[in-house]
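Marked as duplicate of an earlier ticket. Keeping the data here for the record.
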Amino acid sequence: MRNNQPADIVLGQTNAENTLANHGKDSPSATSLNWSYGVNEINGHLVVSDCGNRRVMIWNNPTETGQAADLVLGQPNFDKRDENAGEDISAVGMRWPHGATYWQGHFAVTDAGNNRIMLWNGMPSHNGQACDAVLGQNNFTAGDHNRQGYYPDAGAVNMPYAVAVQDEHLLVADTANSRLLGWTNLATGSKADTLTGQPDFASKGDNGWGIAQRKSVCWPYGLTCRDGVAVVADSGNNRILLWPVSS
């Protein structure tokens, strides 16, 4: 790769010059995107969090510009973009999906607008497939931040954006609580095991309501892991943090 090297393939548009959301149309399609945020390669699939269309798009093998996605989650089909699939909060719909990963045999998506992480058993196989468990809420129909509380706890989140895996841990950037959480239990409503960025699970606040420190974060947005190190985009502090992750 070199500086200013052009992309070989463009997805979401018919060519490299077009930029309109959903090709300038009111409804999306299998070939369009709207404010695509997160992207990851999972088990040989390209996964894109199509945040503005409240859905997750999955390509099995993208090889050409404008190629249609093979599967959509969060909506019953490719031409819908309603919040929570046009229904009450459930195991199917989503609101502002941002990140995706694969953890302990489960496909995981951060559903930031519903303040939860959705988990599917294995890779989803059909459009609009319901998830099998959620973290951050006690059930599939709840969506309030911090589970209706002002302060968080070990099982609550507030606009989780990014997600990554290190060994047995699912790491989540609990963005609006300005902290990072780590889960090993994938049961619905389970509590996180580990915490970074705040002194305890009941605390929140940008930099713990203080000045920036090595142990604090302010609205962490991006998160990835490699070789036992978590790399965090600490957006509110305009910096990148590297944290060793204990097994």
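See parent ticket for discussion. The two ends are 34 Å apart (CA to CA).
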